[in-house]
Amino acid sequence: MYKKDLPFFILVLIAFISLIYVDTNLITGDDYSYNNGDTAWVLVSTALVLIMTPGLAFFYGGMVQKKNVISTMLQSFVSMAVITVLWIFIGFSLAFGDSFQGVIGDPRSYFLFHNVINHAPIELAPTIPFLLFALFQLKFAIITPALITGAFAERIKFTSYLLFLVLFSIFIYSPLAHATWHPDGILARAGVLDFAGGTVVHMSAGIAALAGAIFLKRRTKEKNQPARITYVMLGTGLLWFGWFGFNSGSAFGANELAVIALATTTTSSAAASLTYILFDNFRGKKPSAMGACIGAVVGLVAITPAAGFVSVAHSLVIGICAAVTCNLMITWRSKTSIDDTLDVFPSHGIGGIVGMLLTGVFASKEINPAIENQGLFFGEARLFLAESITLVGVSIYVFIMTWMILTLTNWISPIRVNSEDENIGLDQSQHNESL
Predict the structure, then answer these.
(1) 425 torsion bin: left (phi>0), alpha (psi -120 to 50), beta (else)
(2) Residue among 177, 167, 203 nearest 357 (CA)
C-alpha cells in the first residue's frame, strides 16, 4: 500500500466501524423539557455558523493570486467534510466528554455520537436537545482550522493540509474547547469568560497561523495582488451574516442575552469597519473596499469573546480598538520576514487578544448577571487577571503544539509544495483545475 493511499483506507475503516457499531440507546423513555423557541433559534444559528465557512472561502479566495483561488477556497470547504466526520468519531467526545482533570474529554463518552441523541440537556444549554448543542459546536470546530489557511496560502500541499486539519482539531481545538466551555474545564472553573470563541477559535487560529507562516517560510515569489475584490466583499457579507449565529446563537436560546449579543456584534463590526478605513485615510492611504472588509472582520473577531458580557457602548470601543491595533499590526507584519499571506495573525490572533483583554475590562453583571466577576472598568481586577494569564498560557500552548503538529505532518508528508508547483499555482499543481 502506497503512502498516498493511506487516507482512503482510513476513511474505509471509519465507514466499516460505523457500520458495525450499533447504538442501542437511540430510544429513551425520558421526557426532557425543551423550549421550542430556543430550539428553533439554535437550529437557525447552527446553519448561520456553517455558512461562515463558505464565506471565509470567498474572503480568502478573493485575496490570493488568480492561480491559487480554487485551492484556497477548497481548503475552507474541505474542512466542513473532514471535521464533521472527525467530530462525530471522537472530536465531540474530546471537547465535551467526561472531563479528565479539566483538560480534555474522554474519547469514549460520545464515540460515534453514542448517547448523544438520548442525552439530557447540557448545563450550558438546558432548554435545547443535546444533539443540537453538539451540532452547533461542530460548526465552530469546522471554521477554526479553516481560518489558519490564510497564513500559509499559496504554498501548502493539499494532502498534508488534510492531516494537519485532523491533528489540529484533536490536539489544539478540542482541548481548548473543553478547558473553556465544558462545565468542568480548567479555564471555566478559573472564571475565564469567552462567550463565543475569542480564545477557542480566534486566538488559537491566529497563533497557529503565526507558527504556520514561520514554519513554511516565505513564498518563492511574494505577490499580494488580490484576484477578486468582489469575492472578498461577498465573503465579508457572508461572514457578517453568519456571525450573528456565531455570537447570538451562543446564548443557546431566543432570549434577551441573544439580543444583546446580536446588538454588540452589529455595533462592534460597524465601528471597526469605519475606523479601519478612516485610520487608513489618516495615515495617507485611500479608503478601500479591502480595508472596509478587513475592518469589519476584525471587529467581529474582537467582539466574539465579549458579545454576551458587555454593553452596546462598550462594544463600540472594542471595535475601534481592534481596528486600530490590527491595522498597525498588519503594517508591522509587512515589514518583517514573516510571510503570513493573508495576515491571519494580525487580524484573528491580535483581534482575539484585544477582545479577550477588553472582556476583562468591560464585562458587566448588569448585562449578564450569571458572571462571577466584573471587569476593570467596574473596579474589579480578578477577571482581567484571569483573561491575561489565559492569553499568555494559551498562546504558548498553541504555538508549541502547532509547531509539533507541523513537524509531524512534514515528516509523514512534505507540507510545502516544491518551487515549480508553487510557480504554476496550486489550482493546477494540486487539483488540475483553473478558473
Answers:
(1) left
(2) 203
State the pLDDT at residue 221.
80
Q: Which three cell numbers stand for residue 345?
A: 495573525
pLDDT at 27: 46
70: Cα separation from own chain's centroid: 21
DSSP 8-state symbol, 117: T
Give the span between the Cα atoms of 22 and 330, in whole angstroms. Answer: 51
Residues of the chain with pLDDT under 70: 1-31
Cell representation of residue 134: 453538539
Domain 36-414 in CATH 3.30.70.20? The answer is no
Backbone dihedral region of 223: left (phi > 0), alpha (psi from -120 to 50 degrees) or beta?
beta
Could you tell me the pTM of the whole model?
Answer: 0.94
> Taking every pair of C-alpha atoms in the chain, what is the biggest distance, in angstroms?
68
Q: What is the pLDDT of residue 8?
A: 60
CB neighbours (10 Å) of residue 106?
Answer: 14
Whether 165 contacts 362, CB under 8 Å: no
**Burial bucket for residue 420 (CB in 10 Å: 0-12, 13-18, 19+):** exposed
